[in-house]
Amino acid sequence: QVQLVQSGGGLVQPGGSLRLSCAASGIIFSVNFVNWYRQAPGKQRELVAQISGSGTTYYTDSTKGRFTVSRDNAKNTVYLQMNSLEPEDTAVYYCHVRVGVPYWGQGTQVTVSS
Fold first, then answer.
1. Is the pLDDT of residue 24 over 90?
2. Under DSSP, is residue 34 helix (H, G, I), strand (E, B) or coil?
3. Alpha-carbon gap, residue 58 to 54, rounded angstroms
């Protein structure tokens, strides 16, 4: 059974940083694309970053240069380091992997506010 367990997140002031973690069980993360999505109130869920099995990363225009996705294969965990956070980054963040069917983490609230 595949499980994705997220940790991190919380409340941070504009310009601050947070790191999200996504630990997997029942699947080997290192061979799969792992995605980070977010969903703000009243908005659709959107992709923010992706890391491939080979370590290639992808970011959207809104997160490029501020967010970094990485993985620790020994821990079967993927991270999302978020720097220079803005109020517009406020959302629930989800990790996601597709192995035939999609699997989602439980979601983590990130609130950027002064």
1. yes
2. strand
3. 12
